[in-house]
Amino acid sequence: MKTLLSILIITLFTTPAFAEEGSGELDGTGLECEITDKKYEQDVELKYFVFEKGEVYWLVVTDGTPAKINKLSHGRYFTSANDVRWYPYILNRKTLRLDKLRPTYPSRQHDCEIKEPKQIEAALQKQIEALKEKMKDNKI
Fold this sequence. Notes:
alpha+beta
């Protein structure tokens, strides 16, 4: 019984170490992604992702007052030789094609470019400035 318990404890403590393998290698990089088949009005907006400390974040501008960059966690990402995965996405490392995988509707594909996080923040800051100008022109 003690042997079985020892094996169980060792397995529990070593499994996370294997799950971490390959994660974190993209830290400090970002992606700018565009939906390839635009069907809806919101499809024209680019999506921005950054990789930090083994996690991936979606950066988006809030349209509230004040407008700001919101950093939404998508959790940990996992890499292999061919792809990078985080829920609900899979990124082909060679083509930079990002597929949004959902079991309830067909995949949404994105074409991505690698961007520095500072470039992404600058692009989002431009969106914030445009929103500020738009709000300044409103009479009410």
